[in-house]
Predict the structure.
Amino acid sequence: MATCKECAFYKEVDETKGDCFGHEVPADRDVTECPTNAFKSKEETSEK
């Protein structure tokens, strides 16, 4: 399963955590636990 650090909206703070729309999230959090339910793959956005 994908993790927060693989999301296009994830902005890394350090190796273990990042920011997602103002929510601090662990880098390895499963996307099914996303606080904003807004996961979008970085790969998806880079292909366009």
